[in-house]
Predict the structure.
Amino acid sequence: MNLTLRIWRQQGPETPGEMTEYRVSGISEDMSFLEMLDTLNEELILRGERPVAFDHDCREGICGACGMVINGQAHGPERTTTCQLHMRHFDDGDTIDVEPWRAGAFPVVRDLMVDRSALDRIIGSGGYVTAPTGSAPEAHATPVPKEAADLAFEHAECIGCGACVAACPNGSAMLFTAAKVVHLNVLPQGAPERASRVRNMVETMDAEGFGGCTNTGECATACPKGIPLTGIARLNREFLRS
Amino acid sequence: MSYLDYTLGEPVADTAAPAGPIEQRWQQRRFEAKLVNPANRRKHTVIVVGTGLAGGAAGATLAEQGYHVVQFCFQDSPRRAHSIAAQGGINAAKNYRNDGDSVRRLFYDTVKGGDFRARESNVHRLAEVSVEIIDQCVAQGVPFAREYGGLLDTRSFGGVQVSRTFYARGQTGQQLLLGAYQALSRQIAAGNVEMHPRTEMLDLLVVDGRARGIVARDLVTGEIRSYTADAVVLATGGYGNVFYLSTNAKNSNATAIWRAHRRGALFANPCFTQIHPTCIPRSGDHQSKLTLMSESLRNDGRIWVPKAKGDTRPPARIPEDERDYYLERIYPAFGNLVPRDIASRAAKVVCDEGRGVGPGGQGVYLDFADAIARLGRDAVEAKYGNLFEMYERITAEDPYTVPMRIYPAIHYTMGGLWVDYDLQTTIPGLFAIGEANFSDHGANRLGASALMQGLADGYFVLPPTLNDYLGRTKLDAVPADHPELTAVEAESADRLNLILAVDGDRTPDSFHRELGELLWEECGMAREEAGLRRALARIPEIREEFWRRIKVPGTGEELNQALEKANRLVDYFELAELMCLDALHRAESCGGHFRTESATPDGEAARRDEEFGYAAAWEFTGTGTAPVLHKEDLVFEHVHPTQRSYA
Amino acid sequence: MVMASATRTNRTTRTPAPGRHPSSLASLWRSSVGKKAVMAVSGLVMLAYLVAHMLGNLKVFSGPDDINGYAHWLRTLGQPFLHYGWFLWLARLVLLAAVLAHGTAAYQLSRRDLKARPVKYVHQRQRATYATRTMRWGGVILGLFIVWHILDLTTLTVNPAAEEGHPYQNIVASFSTWYSGGIYCLAMLALGLHVRHGFWSAAQTLGANNPRRDRGLKLAANGLALLLTAGFLSVPVAVMAGLVR
């Protein structure tokens, strides 16, 4: 198929960017969206132009590196990561707008690549259990009710891609933060640091310049891993409880 | 002198493992190890390259102990290392099932699974440490699967007869990695780890014969600079991406270990690569990577191809008597459940005969029609629903009605930097952990053992042995203007400039694809002398063409992903050469290395212990010049080598 | 090319995350989550008031004496413990505090939200439900309406009848003009939308939501919004239709 791409090109965080139009042809519907961009980049390299920069790594939907806003939707029209989005979901002749995650807390590094280190700092401020290596008790010393284990897992699936922030009209990182808070706070291992964890993580989240949650639900709709919106309610409860 | 005329050097031996009963060696080693006074630890800087299971665990643990850790990853966050993609689980000899498991049995299974090409003392330690890993991960809040009583669930995996694999649905690697990442994040926030994301190691700094730092490039600004330290730990993973198409992440690469090899670290068993039989086949030339699907599918799926060559009818139109269920035919006892390497090779054979299915004839059917008829669609869905979904998302085919297509793909590399019992390479002060070293899996890795090894090395093995090194070694600070630093930085920059200066007419990916296809053909699932010689003749030609025709736009002083790719390729060419040479010299079949010349009468792998019962550790002598082979003789005191049979 | 040695010099020696913070209202107000909780609580206070207000309004249908008597009763409520009119003033104070807290928090949060995305998406697409998207403007409209409403029926400044102590007559007079009835009707529709998202959102913000309750809460929010809007609208509609005069 033949496509017209309008891609956000931006040299660096300080320079202004703009949408630039490219045409690609001979796109197979079995290609992933990133493979389609690979095709474009191969052409650009041969023309001596700078290829479009984008983050990607595992290309199987688990590392969380890739992510772009496609026609206004984080990760595009399917509920999956960009690397697992295939071109069969587009039609021949389509014009596709491709933009980076847009948030003040995610400065553009180049083109479609953004700096998501703010998410790492949220984790660093409390998204862990203090369990220095070697200090662990026998694994079966504390049974974990299956229900708690399953709930924890459901939230632990977050891949940290940042689609929630990109989709949120307020650029809020509440779903990301909630995923980690719920994962650790519902487990007995996470209980001792329960209060300080949620307080510190929310504080860091605010300090990084993410917006607040207005419960629009856009985050959970965009989340490729299906982290539930009710996770945010649990985060709020943990916060107020603390 | 041709590259093929390698010479035999002094044997290499592991001198770090204490003698005595194997069960007591690790305890003994830890007891003998020097300790560093906790107050003095902060004066020691340790560089850790990579943040996967091994690197993340090591960085967090060393920082907890008080060392100043400077850590690097090329990803934008330490959470994205490719350990995250491991699906199945992690082995540990907990014996929670009371099914006869023990440290000794895990040790035995791993040595046997590795086809008797691993070092016994290392493997025994791995089995010992495995139980501590589970404790540690549970304490970190890793959400392992649990039973209704709240206790940990396990499953059996990869043909072993006990249920010792702990798992977190199909995302065990992710959950374990996030556990390590969170521990690391805590240390980063506390200022104990200085984290450099989006920074790639380009070279190793060896000063006065010891590893004293690295040269790395900031991938955003292009700045190349030295980082010095008292010891360097490489946790940079395997080199499967040399094949271009593999289940590795796109940016996983061999540059760190290869540069260390060039600086004097021996590289062991490069030809030991593992191929996974159940991957989704490529759909065309645009394919950028391959996706693995759990091996468990072979429990209920039947593998077949058409009997006739070039049969392009849709599978439903091919009548039963025109189908060849080749695994069931050749291996009636094990059928579709033969080990990974056998299933993979058989698929290649039928495809080479022209009976492969799907685009390019590179695939075989994995058919669930019988399972659905026997168990009902719901039961199949309950078992494999998520895998079927993944398959359908990628291929747009519904595996409930159309048989899946699968094909083998490169998945893991058992070879790597040679290390002793302390995980130290032949360069003092340079340690290699996780998939980056060669230590524990011999010629073949068992399922769910990669995660075990990565975490064992990072959390429990490296910290005490590194302690010993730092406690024993007197190191002077390396001055910032040391000539070695300036020289290596310049060398790294020069190489990038040389690539940029070519300004030819071929992209980095086009070379990478060409190299990968060659390797896959000649040094993939089955290797034979003529093919390996062809590859060894061809690789220098491709390299030569690379230096004439490579095209990378932009400059080195900016973010330049094409330059990153091209730079990694330069190392892949040399590594590919060594892989082929290693495969050529090892004229036996063992584990993942199948030499067609060395087969039993019924076509199975035939090991030749008398001649090849060693680990091959290669010494670099220069690009294109013959390396030196150092043999480490493998002694089996506890597990007696036997030949596998599955017919 | 730059050269440097890593790097014992620029180490930060921050201590790991501290334990419990001092718990205080101020720190609650400082955080975005705390501020949302303030909005949720103040919103629920106003919502409770609105339900009572709406039920009171329905007395219009049982005649002037009933509603006028009810208005008088509101002033004598709590006597003799409270003086005449004190209850009403207390209620007004609580409401004023709620409106101020709700409005201030909304203003501050909105500013943070808008700042969080300095560069807008080029490709805009319709997001979320109408009720969700109109929370901010709906809130502003409701704020303006409250001012009008007080001028109209409390201080009677703009009321055509302006008979102190006779709410029935004032109501009928007010809703008999097209503009006053129109303003009122529009505001009540805005109120319905605001409550529809606001009630569920408050439950979510206060952590009362979970997967089992989610549907129920959304239904309750819709029901409440519908009930309030219908209840409030019934009065002006009845006046304009001539059923109440």
The interface with chain C takes residues 43, 45, 47, 68, 70, 186, 189-191, 194, 213, 223-229, 477-481, 485-486, 489-490, 493 of chain B (CB under 8 Å). The domain at 483-613 of chain B is CATH 1.20.58.100 (Methane Monooxygenase Hydroxylase; Chain G, domain 1). The CA atoms of residues 1 and 507 of chain B lie 32 Å apart. DSSP finds 17 helices and 21 strands in chain B.
